[in-house]
């Protein structure tokens, strides 16, 4: 019976497997995800900017755009909520957006968000510009150039101001030149995508702002959307200008995937702060100097090496002045040399001056400056260290000599044998030739008062009664 049952079960198993294969291959049968005919289309990539635009944000956006291009995403949504940021970081992002083979949709969101200053430039650079209700954009005047926005002026005051500007020194002319450059830059972005260039220039020169509805009415933006899904629905089918030509956006019904900043981006956001990078540089240099002065301690050297490497990582994304960096390193080296080669302030004072000047000119961009309080504090600490070294050196010079032949003066010895004018004494375990003005007896204690060559002049120590 067992032998007969085995072939029957085998035939049943084969029949079941055959039915399953026929069911999968039958017309109208649902395909599993990942099969060739039912492959899910690539999702829309969403990148988010929250806060000030700096080197870390620039690195995050550029890498996100590369990922979207590699994965053949139909579009990238750049969700913005920023008060502005650094000019060089903004321009790096805009260049990446203009070169991107994937359409970029900037979206000022959520409700209440803003795209001020650098955010306005990025909005104009995008292929499709959108805003959420109750958001705003504008105030694109560079802070280091234009200062705070001013209230509107009457025509008479404006005419008087224009006449005064003609008499202003070259410094103000240079500022106007830079403002004109920024205005031309944002106008060129507006012309590329057919947006309102007049208002863009006004945002740079007069620091004006707009709400979402106003921006849509003035053709500054293309869409007002409640959320990302609404944005993708409204953007679908629109034609945008790319480097490769005109492209139709296809985003209807597409899923979205959010790319978050990596730990490298978050670390870079911290150490790219000029003040943090500056402190890491000082910690690294002084840690290594301490390790060289005290070999074998290890901990200061390890901490210093890590801090120095992090500082160099931060400096690679900051617009540093290499002359300033060289002056800082020279200043630290001179202050350290004061500890090893006492010069009674010459090296130390020179190091402090070089250190302070280097700190002030370290960064080229006006909006990136090390805190003056931090510079003053670190300079004062270095100055206090040099003063302490100078005081210590002066104190050592005033102390009596403790080594060599001169150190014998004032020491106590013992008479080796009786003598009246010259004889020998024991001093520091050695026999010395000595002379005295009085008769001395063996075993008496004497003190050294002078030295002539290898002969000591001694006096008997009077015993107190």
Q: Give the structural class.
A: alpha/beta
Contiguous runs where pLDDT drops below 50 for at least 5 residues: 1-10, 17-37, 144-171
Number of strands: 16
Q: What is the helix fraction of residues, given as a range?
A: 40-55%
Task: Outline the structure in words.
With 465 residues, this protein is an alpha/beta fold. The chain folds into 3 domains: 202 residues, 2-enoyl-CoA Hydratase, Chain A, domain 1 (Alpha-Beta Complex), CATH 3.90.226.10; 126 residues, no CATH class; 56 residues, OB fold (Dihydrolipoamide Acetyltransferase, E2P) (Beta Barrel). The protein has 16 helices and 16 strands. A 6-stranded parallel beta sheet has the order 8-5-3-2-1-11, with helices on both faces. A 5-stranded mixed beta barrel has the order 12-13-14-16-15. It is rod-shaped. The N terminus is likely disordered.
SSE layout and pairing:
Blueprint lengths: L1 H24 L18 E7 L4 H16 L5 E6 L5 H13 L4 E5 L5 E3 L1 H8 L2 E4 L4 E3 L4 H4 L8 H11 L4 H23 L4 H10 L2 E3 H6 L5 E2 L3 H8 L3 E4 L2 E4 L7 E3 L4 H9 L2 H20 L5 H17 L6 H19 L5 H15 L11 H27 L13 E4 L6 E6 L2 E6 L9 E8 L2 E6 L5
Parallel strand pairs: 1-2, 1-11, 2-3, 3-5, 4-6, 5-8, 14-16
Antiparallel strand pairs: 6-7, 9-10, 12-13, 12-15, 13-14, 15-16
């Amino acid at each position: 019976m067992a032998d007969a049952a085995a072939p029957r079960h085998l035939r049943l198993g084969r029949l079941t497997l055959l039915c399953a294969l026929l069911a999968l291959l039958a017309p109208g049968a649902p395909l599993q995800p990942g099969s060739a005919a039912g492959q899910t289309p690539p999702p829309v990539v969403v990148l988010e900017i929250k806060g000030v635009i700096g080197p870390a944000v620039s690195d995050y956006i550029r890498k996100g755009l590369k990922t979207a291009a590699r994965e053949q995403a139909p579009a990238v949504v750049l969700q913005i909520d920023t008060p502005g940021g650094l000019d060089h970081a903004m321009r790096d992002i805009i260049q990446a957006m203009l070169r991107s083979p994937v359409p970029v949709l900037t979206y000022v969101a959520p409700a209440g968000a803003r795209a001020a200053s650098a955010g306005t430039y990025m909005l104009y650079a995008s292929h499709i510009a959108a805003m959420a209700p109750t958001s705003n954009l504008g105030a694109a005047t560079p802070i280091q150039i234009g200062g705070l926005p001013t209230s509107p002026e009457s025509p008479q005051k404006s005419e008087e101001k224009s006449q005064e500007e003609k008499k202003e020194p070259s410094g103000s002319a240079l500022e106007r030149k830079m403002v004109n450059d920024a205005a031309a830059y944002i106008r060129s972005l507006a012309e590329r995508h057919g947006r309102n260039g007049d208002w863009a220039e006004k945002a740079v020169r007069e620091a004006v702002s707009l709400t979402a509805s106003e921006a849509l009415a003035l053709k500054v933006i293309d869409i007002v959307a409640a959320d990302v899904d609404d944005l993708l629905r409204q953007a679908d089918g629109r034609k945008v200008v790319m480097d490769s030509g005109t492209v139709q956006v296809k985003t209807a019904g597409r899923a979205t995937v959010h790319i978050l900043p990596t730990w490298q981006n978050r670390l870079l956001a911290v150490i790219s702060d000029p003040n943090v990078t500056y402190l890491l540089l000082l910690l690294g240099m002084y840690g290594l100097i301490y390790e060289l002065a005290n070999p074998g301690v290890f901990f200061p050297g390890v901490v210093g090496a890590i801090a120095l490497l992090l500082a160099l990582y931060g400096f690679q994304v900051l617009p540093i002045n290499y002359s300033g960096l060289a002056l800082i390193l020279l200043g630290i080296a001179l202050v350290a040399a004061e500890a090893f080669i006492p010069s009674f302030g010459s090296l130390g004072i020179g190091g402090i001056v070089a250190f302070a000047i280097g700190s002030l000119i370290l960064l080229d961009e006006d909006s990136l400056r090390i805190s003056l309080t931090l510079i003053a504090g670190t300079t004062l600490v270095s100055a206090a260290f040099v003063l302490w070294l100078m005081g210590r050196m002066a104190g050592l010079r005033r102390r009596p000599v403790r080594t060599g032949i001169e150190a014998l003066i004032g020491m106590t010895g013992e008479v080796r044998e009786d003598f009246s004018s010259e004889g020998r004494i024991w001093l520091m375990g050695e026999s010395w030739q000595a002379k005295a003005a009085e008769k001395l007896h063996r075993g008496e204690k004497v003190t050294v008062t002078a030295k002539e060559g290898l002969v000591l002049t001694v006096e008997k120590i009077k015993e107190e009664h």
